[in-house]
Design a protein that fits this description.
mainly alpha; 19 helices; about 5% strand; 3 strands
Length: about 475
């Protein structure tokens, strides 16, 4: 046991990077063609690895006489209680989910809060390489108007490759979750360019990668990521200005910061819609339709892209009265389910089954979808015993981060701002899509990793710190 704790940092680092690669692989549509048994075997092995790392962390907690975060521990306890009381029909699924949630809490968040700069750097390098390759290939698919659709039982809308239904799926399973990675990549690129001493060639390479990710945000057609991007542009520009004008009077400082934030949002929005209007003219006149080469189209609603004028207008939402694309009805349904079991909920993996059995007229029962909002999902899935500790944890963390941002009078601390923006952007995405809680996705991994890093660094912002503390903040090992 003592030897296990001595390798604690290396184990956490190896686990996080292995977990990252596996989750990134899951975002690629071709991975869906692999036998499900391989995916089960892979993530079962990762779970066993996670159990070893967790045991190592426990040894460190015992050695240092420290306990993991009490609110996260209570949330895991709430998941267990909810699963035992109301989730017997899917008990194995619930406990598997509890294991993954524990990994995010007690390995990812915990290891990030130890401020392992090298681990974060490795994580980002893998992210950059993956993003560069997949986004570039996806954009080539857009230029050639390549598209392919086929039925696939694993995915309710089937196998989709390339430019489909006026959205760029590219090589990804789902464009919303794929596009959600792009703001994270762009923010991390800004951190590298502004915070590191890079050669001109590296700065140009990072600039190109940032532009490619911006292009994918536009072409993905994800309104959720558009909202997320606008908010983080506003918040980021505001705090950069607020830090820069630290010597100006408070009212004037706020006024300048808000103005710069609004101008930045205007520029970003103009660039977004400007590129969206130009993008259709960037594709080849005769696209590649793999459906046509196969001799038939598997989706009768999907026309060949060969002779069709390219458009980025989403038909699935443009002709609907509900601008939320069904989300509001899902949210109302989640509240109805919570009201029927307010204390301990339905258990996360039993939500749909519970709705079908007890509330068959609700939207969740009909659509068999989760609420598309991590707070309402928690509310319905674990009731009050789950939502209360989660809210206390999140509110406490973000109040602390917010205070630190307002006290960050040294813009050289750009890393803290970037990590905070990633955590904020993840919350915005999670309020509109299933992510952060009860999900085993790359978005959840990024949230808990960078929330942990920001949580650690916030304690040094705005305080008189000695050289040792400053070294910890910057990750220096000198």
């Amino acid at each position: 046991m003592e030897k296990l704790s001595s390798y604690n940092k290396e184990l956490n680092r190896a686990f996080l990077l292995t977990y990252e690669v596996a989750l990134l692989a899951r975002t690629i549509i071709l991975y869906s063609l692999i036998d499900s048994r391989f995916d089960t075997l892979l993530f079962s092995a990762i779970t066993v690895f996670g159990a070893i790392v967790f045991l190592s962390n426990v040894m460190v907690w015992i050695r240092d006489r420290k306990l993991p975060n009490i609110w996260l521990s209570l949330f895991i306890l709430a998941m267990i209680i909810s699963s035992l009381l109301n989730g017997r029909t899917n008990l194995f699924g619930n406990f598997r989910l509890i294991a993954w949630q524990g990994i995010l809490f007690f390995i990812v968040f915990y290891s990030a809060s130890k401020n392992d700069k090298k681990m974060v750097q490795y994580f980002e390098n893998i992210f950059f390489i993956f993003s560069g390759i997949t986004i570039f290939i996806s954009l080539l698919m857009f230029v050639t108007k390549l598209s392919y659709v086929a039925p696939l039982s694993k995915i309710y809308y089937g196998f989709r490759l390339g430019f489909v239904e006026n959205r760029l799926y590219g090589v990804f399973v789902e464009p919303n979750f794929a596009a959600n990675m792009s703001p994270v990549v762009i923010l991390l690129i800004l951190k590298r360019i502004l915070g590191d001493q890079l050669s001109r060639a590296k700065k140009i390479s990072f600039g190109i990668l940032a532009f490619l990710n911006f292009c994918y945000i536009v072409l993905s057609g994800s309104r959720t990521v558009l909202v997320e991007s606008i908010v983080i542009v506003m918040i980021g520009a505001f705090f950069v200005s607020y830090s820069k004008y630290a010597l100006v009077g408070l009212v004037k400082r706020w006024g300048i910061s808000l103005l710069i934030g609004l101008v930045s949002v205007t520029i970003f929005t103009g660039a977004y819609y400007g590129f969206k209007s130009v993008a259709p003219y960037l594709s080849l006149p005769n696209g590649i339709s793999l459906n046509q080469l196969a001799g038939k189209t598997h989706d009768t609603n999907l026309e060949d892209n060969k002779d069709k004028e390219l458009s980025l207008k989403r038909e699935d939402v443009s002709n609907q009265e509900d601008a939320s694309n069904g989300r509001i009805r899902l949210w109302k349904s989640a509240i109805e389910i919570f009201q029927s079991s307010p204390i301990y909920g339905t258990s996360p993996r039993n939500l749909v089954n519970y709705a079908e059995k007890n509330l068959p007229d609700t939207r969740i029962a009909h659509s068999k979808q989760t609420p598309h909002n991590f707070l309402l999902f928690t509310l319905a899935g674990t009731g009050l015993i789950g939502i209360i500790p989660l809210l206390i944890f999140l509110v406490t963390e973000f109040i602390g981060i917010g205070k630190a941002l307002f006290h960050n009078n040294n813009i050289e601390n750009i890393n803290f701002l970037i990590y905070s923006l990633i955590a904020i952007s993840s919350v915005i995405f999670g309020l509109l899509m299933p992510d952060i809680i009860f999900e085993n996705r790359i978005g959840a991994l990024c949230f808990w990793l960078y929330l942990g890093t920001a949580s650690y660094q916030k304690q040094f912002i705005g305080k008189e710190i000695n050289n040792h503390a400053e070294a910890k903040l910057t990750g220096s090992t000198k």
